Amino acid sequence: MKYENLSRVIALQSEYYSDYQEGQLMTLDHDASFAGGNNAEAFRPETNLGGQVVFSIINECEAHKVDYSNKAEVEELDAIEAEDEYIVKKGTHFQIDWAEPEDEEGKGFIEVELIALSDAEYKDALEDGAEASEGIL
């Protein structure tokens, strides 16, 4: 199923912020947990931890909504019910639509907006000369 307004926060030293450039492509190399749009507080950056990157998927993205009534799934994913959690599968492709070049405001994090791509869109972007990002997701 496809969902909108998914977000994720990762810890990252600020010297790596420049790894995220507009137009670059990214592919998840693992299943990744994202917070849903129904819970804006879920993955709020903790600015006392140092550098972080806040990723927001700005279009619909294929994902699995965690079923909190399924105890086995919750335990396997180490999910927390209040997080409105979604799992985006390994191999999902994105293009960076917008990225802050650095934390100019001293917030302790940068924001990166992603567009989820189909396999065909990803292939077309590569053929059109888009480069893969060195950043992690």
SSE inventory with pairings:
Layout (H helix, E strand, L loop, with lengths): L1 E2 L2 E6 L13 E3 L4 E4 L16 E6 L3 E2 L1 E2 L5 H7 L7 E4 L4 E7 L9 E9 L1 H9 L10
Parallel strand pairs: 5-10
Antiparallel strand pairs: 1-6, 2-5, 3-9, 4-8, 7-8, 9-10
Using only C-alpha atoms, the radius of gyration works out to 15 Å
Helix proportion: 10-25%
Order of helices and strands: EEEEEEEHEEEH
Question: What profile does the largest beta sheet have?
Answer: 5 strands, mixed
Average pLDDT, rounded to a whole number, is 87
Count of alpha and pi helical runs: 2
With strands numbered from the N-terminus, the spatial order across the biggest sheet is 2-5-10-9-3
The gross shape turns out to be globular
Given as residue ranges, the uncertain stretches (5+ residues, pLDDT < 50) are none
Number of strands: 10
How far apart are the termini?
21 Å
Which structural category do the helix and sheet elements fall into?
mainly beta
Assess the beta-strand content as a share of residues: 25-35%
Task: Tell me about this structure.
By secondary structure, the chain is mostly beta strands. It has helices at about 70-75, 120-125; strands at about 1-5, 5-10, 25, 30-35, 50-55, 60, 65, 85-90, 95-100, 110-115. The strands form three sheets. It has a five-stranded mixed beta sheet. The two termini are about 20 Å apart.
Give a quick summary of the entry.
With 137 residues, this protein is mainly β. The chain is built from 2 helices and 10 strands.
